[in-house]
Design a protein that fits this description.
- The chain is an alpha+beta fold and about 400 residues long.
- About 50% of the residues lie in helices and about 10% in strands.
- Helix 4 packs across helix 8, helix 5 packs across helix 8 and helix 10 crosses helix 14.
- The longest helix is centred in the middle third of the chain and has 20 residues.
Length: about 400
Amino acid sequence: MPRITSNRLTARTVTSLKDGVYGDGGNLWLTVKGNTRSWSIRYKSPVTSKAREMGIGSARDVSLADARKKATEARLLVMEGIDPLIQRKEEKATRQRENGLTFDEVADRFIRERAPGWSAKSAPERWRSSLRQHACPRVGQKLISAIDTDDILAILRPIWSEKTETARRIRSRVERILDYARTHGWREGENPARWRGHLANILPSPGDVTKVEHRAAVDRKDMPRVMAALAQSEGLAAKAVMFTALTAARSGEVRGATWSEINIENRIWTVPAERMKTRKEHRVPLTDSALDILQAVLPLRNSRQGDFIFPGQRRGKPLTDVALSKALHTAAGTKDVTVHGLRSTFRDWAAEETDFPREVAEMALAHVIGDKVEAAYRRGNLFDKRRKMMKQWEEKLSFTHP
């Protein structure tokens, strides 16, 4: 690239020059005509070999430093065989096409691009289903650039009081989609689905219009009977429920558990970070009863495709959440309890019937308790305390091993 004599102009001369055309050096020029001062870039097109001139804005809006930066970018494009004017026209045409995108089209792009990073495989379909039901009928065919606060309220008001949790989830999803559109330059201005400082000034707080519905839990006094009933069952789902109760784990963590995660010798189940809600590896101390359950299901290992401890009916798939729920309902004698509620049962027992610190129980449940507190407990004998806690929980559940 030939040496370019540049930086002839200064910020002061830019504002004081009389009518005429002035070169800063290289390919940057300033044209002064009356009160108008405008920048342009001159170059030879690598495509047509013709002399070209491309305006890059008024000197009032584009500083000398920014103009030089744009000139440098244009020179680099020419060196790569790209005509800056042709590229700018193509980019403008692309923006015009994309500015005509509807909410439905942008939502579909967002889900397709973000889905690979979501832990739950069912999440994309849940997003699509909820948007189809509540958002798309109102704004699906509306230009993404034209959606405003009235549109958002039209989506939320019909369900805000009766289906508050659904409405809260829809608002959050629409907000993320609109943020995605703004980042791509398909819309401008504030996000009309934003809660803080915007919708919070219009709609009542979710906490004011609905009560939190906790997952129905088995009463801890009734747990020994339920566990005994599960132990009498020959079904694999019943054993999975027992293992869930003994480890205070989430249903999905148990159903997706593999033999490679189990260390029998050290009596530890290590759930990898990618399978945890917190995205942090979680170690679970295994009691005698939990190990007995693993021993009972060991004959199933390698009998079906995959390494799942609790394999389902479909090859290479684990047990379903429905299967575990049915097993618990049968053992409890009611459908008014959930597998997830077993974690609440454990938490209530730890708080009301033991002297273990709250943080120990929270970490047993793999809850986030704050980096500083968590770090302090990890430096101590937290895992030993958790093992003792789970041993006492096993005794509380007292039942005949399978």
